[in-house]
Predict the structure.
Amino acid sequence: MADKLIIFDTTLRDGEQSPGASMTRDEKLRIARQLERLKVDVIEAGFAASSNGDFECVQAIARAIKDSTVCSLARANDRDIARAAEALQDSANARIHLFIATSPLHMEKKLRMTPDEVFEQARLSVRFARNLRDDIEFSAEDGYRSDIDFLARICETVIDEGATTINIPDTVGYAIPELYGNFLKTLREKVPNSDKVVWSVHCHNDLGMAVANSLAGVKIGGARQVECTINGLGERAGNCSLEEVVMAVKTRKDYFGLDVGIDTTQILAASKMVSSTTGFVVQPNKAVVGANAFAHASGIHQDGVLKARDTYEIMRAEDVGWSANKIVLGKLSGRNAFKQRLQELGVMLESESEIMTAFAKFKELADRKSEIFDEDILALVSDERIAPGHEQYGFVSLSQASETGERPHAEIVFTIAGKEVRGHAEGNGPVDASLKAIESHVQSGAEMVLYSVNAISGSTDAQGEVTVRLQNSGRVVNGVGADPDIVVASAKAYLSALNKLHSKVETVAAQG
Ligand code: KIV
Ligand code: ZN
């Protein structure tokens, strides 16, 4: 039997550290459930000690997830580790992931600690963690830029103290595949008890080589765990992309000879969920999950694929979750069909009243748009997600006028704490006018740092999905709204972002 490659997803921790990608507890929970459906082995749910908000997210995910191991990051100190253990206490399969920097630069300039102090802290913290849980991962932050002999000494010691996984990150994305693979191979050879643990790779994408470096760590270095994120989300240029690394190992099993437990048919749904939650749009030519990843535009390619699919296709689109855009529901569909489709899409609406509200919205949409796709349903329920019925701001109606040569103006009706208000404003365009009309009442003082529009299902009769990112007093939040009318979608997205700013949900990303 082939060796197994463990897939460790850190979308909810390292991915979330990407500026602007912070997520609410409900959003994280929803993504964690999708990761479980995807059958990732380990879900890094957050960094419990970094804030009360993160603690609650890790705790909620640890309680909800049964089939994947749930993990919390912790710095290598007793307080962080105890907090991680507390957040994970209701989970049967939990992992504490502790880290300390080991490169000369990080030890001297960031930690202001000597190598001996770092060594001792690593040793004691793994000992402390091992008393709380059995599954302990140790990460040597900036491991790839560390002195290999020093690193080998630390690894040997933390393995003796009971660490079960050792992770060697390329924290700053500096590695080159062959060099990184060989670094890991040599390191393992220098650690006498290296066979007692799973070795792991964690690569950042600053030079665009995170996936290649991770694969070299597996092939040359003997790693059997890859840390990665959906869509390669992450700080700066991001992390190793889960979908790419998984499909590389599966498609080239002849070369890697490894098994992965991922249900690849769930990849696209995970990608779309992460993209619409964070507002980080997937580029069309992105491998595996980009809109063009399986599109053959040239006549020669189309002809070849029609004659024999494998002339130009090395993977099957349906194996990663692409299906021909099929009409799944229409205006005659009943509540049960809607409910069942939600279940098939993995959307868990908690109460009957949430289902009723979502169904009413579905009917309203079906009256305006004859063909309803899965993407429409997902967008529609995402409006329901934050404390349905209890939002501070709610959309009611909008009218706007724009004409060549005239300054556009908008009138919006929305609710503030359940009370209807009406705002008017002019603007540079209808969207600008609508958002100004909202601000004429709210006066949030927030700065807009991102506005993006996407067609949900690809043509002009599709719904527009708008993402608005607002920043206020150090908090960054994303609001998403969908509607066949993009001005209405923009107003909904703006109100959704204002709701998040107004709520007490902690959304500041953890620092690693
Ligand atoms: O990039 C990194 O070094 C990390 C560690 C905290 C694992 O994210
Ligand atoms: Zn990282």
The CA atoms of residues 152 and 191 lie 5 Å apart. The chain has three domains: 6-278, 327-381, 388-502.
